[in-house]
């Protein structure tokens, strides 16, 4: 990279500019990735945390997609499914939206009625019994609640029995209670779905044997409200940003290569091989991409710490490193497409008054 | 002989026909010999340099550079031959803008994979030889036209070539600086036992060369030895 490094030193302004653009694009992609993950978790972390292999829903109406909102099953569906071959456990799940009131605090919550086996890890308190609930740590902090405190959940007076790891469903914190208590609160004698633990049974065989719609957990995310459209929109934005980055990097290196075609012709004329020029140019592009993407990723990581305090934002190593690597990878594709023209430079143009 | 061109024919496509750039051109240049090729624009001077510099393969005829017949060489082998055996001095602007004078020379060493310490020493020696040791850290834009051309000469010598090809070295210089460059080329040709071929349309400095030949419509006309001696005596 003899020429590449000296070009970088010589044309600091130009490379600084494109490096800044790459940093900005990386910053935006990392922030969007954190936001996508954060919003995704806010939508489905309660489903993701369920220790089940599959979730059985009622068959949706014709032309409709399966949904936690519209699925309604008879209360004995869990017991019925538990007898099927390959099913080791079947837990009824009821899901509804409610309002939690504790003193002066009022919070909208998602109410999960299910067996204590399906609750998240308990931080404090005891497993909830009848007329008792488990709430997440953030909700407990926000509403100043601890085990033993009284709350009102959609008009029913209940006791906080346990504080559990935070989960949320459809952007609302989850309050866990037994299926009986849930049915009493919601004045319902049905359930929403059944969580299944399996030992060899397939979703297809279960669906065929029961006339239910059986999905694995990841597929069940799509049954949560606007999860799919929300994630789809954000992923589309990320994809567009990455595509724009490819165009920016490709355009810059195309113009840069054209500008120094005369220099490249001289190097070819004095004996520089095509491979030498290509390695040099790609090395230069890699350095610019690495520096820009690393700077963008670092700033986004710092900004993510603050963002996580005010919006659903997940700052993890993967949410930073994967987008940074993607930016470098696709940026290199753009660079390869543009700098490969260094191999077509004609050394003959170094002669005469052609320059 | 460092350069042998034997009955070279070269044509270029031009619309629906081909233009003859070199027509039955033969030339021999030995070590320590400084040859000038003159002629008007479009006469074929640059084409001759391109063939002699292994940049173009002629349609017919034999090209031998530093003992290597290049007609059948691959493109990669011709790159290597240029690196190892040929030095180019281009017109004045053909230095890389981002490199200092010293780095212009070190680039050649980098292309050759030479030892860095030895290359640095040789590059400084060569810059000193062309009177630019104190300008080693300057970029082309910080050098005068004559200084740039001296750097170009030093760069051409960096690879210890057998053949030095010089393209219009005085075209952008005044008479005094032009004469100084041609004089420098004459000196290094002797000192380093090079075979130097200089293409020029400037006839003012021909008294500094050993031989001259004229290109016209792709044909090379070289005066006889007796004519050459007479030409030199009358200058």
Largest sheet of chain A: 6 strands, mixed, barrel
Query: Strand-residue fraction of chain A?
Result: 15-25%
Measured on Cα atoms, how large is the radius of gyration of chain A?
29 Å
Question: What sequence of helices (H) and strands (E) makes up the elements of chain B?
Answer: EEEHEEHEHHHEHEEEH
The count of helical stretches of chain A stands at: 11
Shape of chain B: globular
Annotation, overall tally of beta strands of chain A: 11
Class of secondary structure makeup of chain A: alpha+beta
What's the story with the biggest beta sheet of chain B?
A: 6 strands, mixed
Beta fraction of chain B = 25-35%
Summarize the helix and strand pattern of chain A as letters.
HHEHEEEEHEEEEHEHEHHHHH
Provide the gyration radius of chain B in Å.
18 Å
The count of strands of chain B amounts to 10
Strand order of the largest sheet of chain B: 6-7-8-3-9-10
Residues in helices of chain A, as a percent range: 40-55%
Which spans of chain B have pLDDT < 50 for at least 5 consecutive residues?
Answer: none
Q: Average pLDDT of chain A, to the nearest integer? A: 90
Whole-Å distance between the termini of chain B?
A: 28 Å
| Average pLDDT over all residues of chain B | 86
Q: What is the helix tally of chain B?
A: 7
Biggest interface pair, counts = A-B, 25 and 39 residues
């Amino acid at each position: 990279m003899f020429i590449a490094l000296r070009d970088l030193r010589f044309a600091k302004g130009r490379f600084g500019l494109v490096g800044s653009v790459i940093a900005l694009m990386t910053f935006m992609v990392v922030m969007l990735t954190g936001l996508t993950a954060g919003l995704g978790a806010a939508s489905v972390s309660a489903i993701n945390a369920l220790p089940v292999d599959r979730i059985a829903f009622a068959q949706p109406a014709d032309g409709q997609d399966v949904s936690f909102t519209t699925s309604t099953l008879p209360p004995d569906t869990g017991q019925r499914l538990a007898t099927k071959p390959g099913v080791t456990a079947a837990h009824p799940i009821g899901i509804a939206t409610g309002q939690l009131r504790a003193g002066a605090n009022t919070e909208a919550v998602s109410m999960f009625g299910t067996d204590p086996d399906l609750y998240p890890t308990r931080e404090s308190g005891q497993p909830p019994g009848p007329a008792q609930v488990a709430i997440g740590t953030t909700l407990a902090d926000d509403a100043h609640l601890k085990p033993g405190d009284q709350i009102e959940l959609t008009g029913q007076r209940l006791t906080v029995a346990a504080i559990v790891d935070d989960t949320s469903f459809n952007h609302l914190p989850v309050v866990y209670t037994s299926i009986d208590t849930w049915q009493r609160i919601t004045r319902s004698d049905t359930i929403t779905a059944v969580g299944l633990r399996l030992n060899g049974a397939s979703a297809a065989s279960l669906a065929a044997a029961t006339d239910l719609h059986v999905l694995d957990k990841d597929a069940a995310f799509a049954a949560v409200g606007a999860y799919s459209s929300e994630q789809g929109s954000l992923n589309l934005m990320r994809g567009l940003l990455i595509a724009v980055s490819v165009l920016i990097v490709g355009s810059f290196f195309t113009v840069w290569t054209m500008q120094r075609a005369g220099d490249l012709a001289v190097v070819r004329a004095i004996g520089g091989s095509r491979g030498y020029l290509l390695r040099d140019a790609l090395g230069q592009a890699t350095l610019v991409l690495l520096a820009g993407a690393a700077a963008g990723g670092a700033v986004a990581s710092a900004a993510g710490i603050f963002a996580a305090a005010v919006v659903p934002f997940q700052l993890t190593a993967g949410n930073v490193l994967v987008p940074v690597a993607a930016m470098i990878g696709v940026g290199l594709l753009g660079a390869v497409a543009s700098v490969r023209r260094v191999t077509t430079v004609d050394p003959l143009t170094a002669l005469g008054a052609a320059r | 002989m460092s350069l042998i061109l034997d009955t070279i024919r070269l044509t270029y496509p031009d619309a629906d026909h081909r233009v003859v750039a070199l027509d039955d051109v033969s030339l021999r240049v030995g070590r320590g010999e400084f040859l000038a090729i003159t002629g008007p624009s479009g006469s074929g001077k640059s084409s001759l340099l391109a063939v002699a510099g292994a940049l173009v393969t002629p349609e017919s005829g034999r090209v031998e550079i530093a003992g290597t017949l290049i007609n059948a060489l691959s493109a990669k082998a011709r790159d290597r031959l240029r690196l190892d055996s040929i030095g180019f001095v281009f017109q004045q602007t053909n230095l890389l803008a981002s490199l200092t004078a010293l780095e212009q020379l070190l680039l050649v060493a980098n292309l050759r994979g030479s030892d860095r310490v030895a290359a640095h020493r040789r590059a400084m020696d060569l810059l000193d030889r062309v009177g630019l040791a104190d300008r080693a850290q300057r970029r082309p834009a910080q050098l005068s036209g004559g200084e740039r051309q001296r750097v170009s000469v030093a760069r051409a010598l960096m690879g210890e070539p057998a053949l030095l090809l010089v393209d219009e070295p005085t075209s952008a210089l005044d008479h005094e600086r032009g004469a100084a460059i041609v004089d420098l080329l004459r000196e290094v040709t002797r000192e380093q036992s090079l075979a130097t071929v200089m293409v020029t349309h400037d006839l003012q400095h021909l008294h500094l060369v050993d031989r001259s030949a004229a290109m016209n419509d792709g044909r090379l006309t070289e005066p006889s030895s007796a004519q050459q001696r007479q030409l030199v005596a009358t200058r």
